[in-house]
Amino acid sequence: MSLISQCRQLREARGKSLGDLGRLLGMAAQNLSAILLGKKDSRASTLEALAAALDAQWVLVPNERLAEVRQVLEGKGSGPDRGARAALDIFLDQE
């Protein structure tokens, strides 16, 4: 999924209007709409400001880790912390 489509989805999920975001970014809603529709290119600094306005961050993910990151984002990547001490070890250390 592209960065622009992720921004579009997050804007909708956060319930932010184009006008609200445009005011936060200091740009016309029409220009923001063109960016989010992929009709207009934007500077990285504008996209960083857009992410911040949506309370989000850009993350560069190496392709070999993309599947893992997607699982985590979908809530399917959580599991036991294999590096954590076992409950039995903690209990025995208390004695």
UniProtKB/TrEMBL annotation:
GO terms for molecular function: DNA binding. SUPFAM superfamilies: lambda repressor-like DNA-binding domains. SMART domains: HTH_XRE (SM00530). Residues 8-61 form the HTH cro/C1-type domain. This is Transcription regulator HTH isolated domain. It comes from Cupriavidus taiwanensis (strain DSM 17343 / BCRC 17206 / CCUG 44338 / CIP 107171 / LMG 19424 / R1) (Ralstonia taiwanensis (strain LMG 19424)). The lineage of its organism: Bacteria, Pseudomonadati, Pseudomonadota, Betaproteobacteria, Burkholderiales.
